[in-house]
Amino acid sequence: MDYTELAADVTRKAGKLGADECDCMMEVGHELTVKVRQGEVESIERADFRGLGIRTFINKSLGFGFTTDFSAASIDNLIERSLAFARTATPDPDAGIPEFGRTEFPDLDLNDPELDDTPLSAKTDMALACEQAAYDHDKRIKYTYGTSYSDQKGRVILARVGTDPIVREGTHVDLTCVPVAEDGGEKRMGIWLSAERFLSDLEPAAAVGSIAAQRAVSMLGASTVPTQKAAVVFDQRTGSQVVANIFDSLDGERIIQGMSFLKDRIGQKVGSDSASLVDDGQMARRIGSRPFDSEGTPTRRTLAIDKGTVKSYFYDYRSARKAGAEPTGNASRGFASIPSVGANNFYLIPGKTPRDDVIGQIENGLMVTNLLGFGVNITTGDFSRGAEGLWIKDGKISHPVHGVTIAGNLLDMLKDMEAVASDLRFFGRIGSPTFVVREMTIAGE
Amino acid sequence: MTDNPTGFPDKEDLERVIAATLAKGAEFAEVYLERRTTDTVQLEAQIVREASRGITAGAGIRAISGEKIGYAYTDDLDPVSLIEAARMAAEIATGGDKPVAVELGALTRAEPRSATRIFPIEVEAADKIETAQSADQAARDYDSRISEVLIGVMDSDKSFVIANSEGINVSDRQILTSLRITTVAEAKGLRQRGFRSLSGTVGYEIFERETQQDCALDAARQAVGLLDAQEAPAGKMVLVLGRGRGGVLLHEAIGHGFEGDFIRKKTSLFTGRIGEKIATETCTIVDDSTIPGLRGTINVDDEGTPGGRTVLVEKGILKGFLFDRLNGRLMNSASTGNGRRQSYKYMPVVRMTNTFMQPGDTPPEEIIESVKQGFYAKRIGGGQVDIASGNFVFEVMEGYLIEDGKVGAPVRGANLIGNGAEVLKKIEMVGNDFEYDPGGGTCGKAGQAMPVGNGVPTVKLSEITVGGTRS
C-alpha cells in the first residue's frame, strides 16, 4: 500500500465533500517489547501498527476522525462523521491548518539503520544482561518488578490539500530495569532506564541494571524524618519530573486558559540566575528531535526561561494565533488525537559544578530519588508530592528517607533554585541535571 | 446485532489462526478480535475544541508456553495478516514445527449485564455537542467567579470475539458513556480547580441517573469552595475518608495487592497470607463486575471468562485473590474473570473491575462526632502506589479540618501519605452510608488504561500522614 498517496487521497476526498481545510496525519511502523524475569524471557510482543487521523474544518469549525482500519468504507464513514461534527461545532477563528513551513528539512540523524538488522536474540540478551547485573550488584536483589527492552521504527506522513505530503522517520530504543531489594520484611524498589534513538547510544545493559539495583538497595532501612524546612536536591530523574512540570506551566494553551501560574510573566524575572530552560527540536540523535512538528511547522530552539527571566511560552498554530505569537514548533499529536502543545527536547541548562560538589555544599537536606503522587497544581504552582531519597548531612549522604512529602510552590522553587550541576541527562523528551532548591517544607512526623 | 459482528473473520479462519499459533509447541493459543467506535466532544472556553469519531479495529494473538508469552497484534483483520501475526506470537515456543488441529465451538454471545437503551452510535453529533454545552452553561451560571470550564463527553461501543485453543468462541458488545468536568474558579489572583465525572457501562440514558447540569454544579461548587480554603496542615492525624470517591484509595492503595500476577510473582505483601487477619473486623472488601451499569462492569472478561464477584477480605480475614487464566493456572486457581486489556494492542493483565468496601453499621454523623481533631478527605484525586512496599500518596481534591466533632474549614493542597497494609489495620469505624463513586476511575496498571468502578462508605482511620504546605 502506498501510504503517502493514501494520505493525500484522504485530504482530496474531504475537500470534495465540503471541508474548507483538511489535513491527514498517518503513522505506520513496527515495534518490539521483550520482558525478562529471573533469567528467562517472560514475554515477547511484536506488532505492525498503522493509523490515520483526519482534521476537517468548515467555517473554522473542527471535526476530527481517526482509524486503524484503512478500508474505503471506514475512511468514508470517518470523513462523513468528521464533517457532521464540523458542521455543528462552534467556530474558532484562530483554529485552522497552517501551511507547511518548508518542503525540505535537515537530516537530524534520527533513524538507526542497524536496528532492524539486529537479531531478536541480541535484544533479548541485552534485557537478560541488564537483569543479571541487578542481581550481581547486591545479594539483596532477588527479583525485579520488571526488566524490559523495547524498540520501535516509525514513519509519520503529513498531508494537506495543495502541497506534497511531508514525511519523517525515526527509531526509538529503550532499556528499563526495576529491581526490588529485600531485607528482612522490607522491600524497596529502584528504577533506572536508558532511552535513545540509536541502539549504540544506549547505556550499557549492565550499567542500567546495576544503577537500578544501587538505587533500590540504597533505600533499605529508610525511615521518616521530623517535619522541617530544609534544602531539597533533585537528582537527574526526579529533577526531570520537576522540569516536566515547568514545561506544562509554559504550555501556551494553559497560558491562554489561565491555567498556569506563569501566565502574564513574559519579561519578568521569576527564577534565580541558575534557572535557564530551553526546548530544542533540532538536536542530533535525540528522542525529542524531529524536523517538523505535528502540523508541519519546522522545529527550533526556544529559550523559554533565561537566567530566571521568562522569555517565551510554547505554542502550536492555534494557541499561537490566540496569543498573537508565532508557533514554536511544539505541536504534538498521535494519529488518534488533535494537536496540543508538547515538548521536543526540553531541559534545564546544566551548570559547571560536578554533581558531587553540589551535594557537598548541602549542610542539611534531602536528595529526592523518587517522587510519588500527582500533587502538582500547574494553575496555582502548588507542589506537594510524596518523596523518598537520601538525607544529606554536612555534604555527605547520611541515611535513606521515606514516608515524607515535600511541599512548596513551583514559583518559589524556581526562585530558590540554587546550584545546578553539570550532569544533564535526558529521560525521553525531558532532561535535567542534579539541582538544589534552597528550602522546601519536608513533612514527615 | 448478529452474533458475528461485521467484518470479523469466520470460525474456520480463526481455527487456522489458532493452529498457526500452536504450531511451534505452545500449549495455549488465543485470538482476540476487536472493533470499536468512539465519539469524543471536548469543550473548552465554550468552544468545541474537539468533536471526533474514532474507529479502531485489529487483532491480538497470544501464545503461552509454560510461563512465557508470545504476543503479536495487527491493525489489519484480514486472514493473511492474522496468520502472519500468529507466526510471530508462536515463536515464543521452541518445540519445532508440528501440525495441530483446532476445533472451535459455535460462536456464543455473552449475556449482557447492563441493558443499553440509547446506543451512543445512534445519538446525533449535534446532540453530543449540546450535552457538553448545557453542562458548561450550568457551571458558569453557578457563580461569576467560575472563570473556565472544560467538558468532555465520551462514548465507546466495542464489539469483540475471543477464541482459544480450549474451544472458547465468544462474542460481546460493551458500551461505555462518560462525562468529565473540570472547573476553575478565580478571585483575588487565586485560582482553584474542581472536578467531577459520571461514567457507566450504559448509553446516553446515563444522564437520567444524574443530569450533566447537576454534575457541572458539583464541580463548580468544589472550585468556588476552595477559594476560601486555607493551606493544608502537615503531620499525623485522624482521617475520615468520604464515601463514594474515597474508593479510589481502596483500589490503588490496597486492591492491587490482591491481583494474582503480583501474588504469583510474590511482589504483593499479601502473598501466601490467605486466612490471615490483615484488617480490622469492620472491613470487608469485594471485587464485583456483575453490578449492572457501573464503569467497571463486564459481561465476559477479555479472555472470555464470565465476570464474577470475588470476596477479597471478609471481616478482616484475607479470603481470596483475583486471577486471569495464566496466573490462575500457575497458581492452581480458576480465573475469577479479571483478565482485562485496554485493546487488541495489549496482552490481558489481571485487573480489578468494581472494587468496594462493604458498608458497616455506624451512621456517618457519629463517625465525624467521634473525632476531636482530624482531617476529612471528602474527595480523593489521583494517587500513586509503590507495589513493593505498599506506600502510597494521594492528592485530596476536597478536604476539611475536623474540630471537636464538626466538619470545619476547607483546606487545599493536601496529600495523604500512608501504607496500604497499615491502613487496613487502622480502620476504626465503617459507615452505613455506602455509595458507588459515580465517575469511577481509570486504572493505569502495566501501561494500559482500564475503566474501573469503586465505592466505599464513610471510613475512619486512627491515623494517617497528611502532607500539606503549612508546617
Describe this structure in words.
- The complex is a heterodimer of chains A (445) and B (471).
- By secondary structure, chain A is α+β, with helices and mostly antiparallel strands.
- Chain A has a domain of 224 residues.
- Chain A contains 9 helices and 21 strands.
- The longest helix of chain A is centred in the first third of the chain and has 18 residues.
- Chain B is α+β, with helices and mostly antiparallel strands and 471 residues long.
- Chain B has 3 domains: 82 residues, no CATH class; 109 residues, PmbA/TldD superfamily (PmbA/TldD fold); 233 residues, no CATH class.
- Helices cover 20% and strands 39% of the residues of chain B.
- In chain B, strands 1, 2, 3, 4, 5, 6 and 7 form a 7-stranded mixed β-sheet that branches. In chain B, strands 10, 11, 12, 15, 21, 22 and 23 form a 7-stranded mixed β-sheet that branches. Chain B has a 5-stranded mixed beta barrel with strand order 9-16-17-19-24.
- In chain B, strand 13 and strand 14 form a beta hairpin.
- In chain B, helix 1 runs parallel beside helix 2 and helix 3 packs parallel to helix 5.
- The N and C termini of chain B lie far apart (61 Å).
- At the A-B interface, strand 2, strand 3, helix 2, strand 6 and strand 16 of A face strand 2, strand 3, helix 2, helix 3 and strand 7 of B.
- Strand 3 of chain A pairs parallel with strand 2 of chain B, so a sheet runs across the interface.
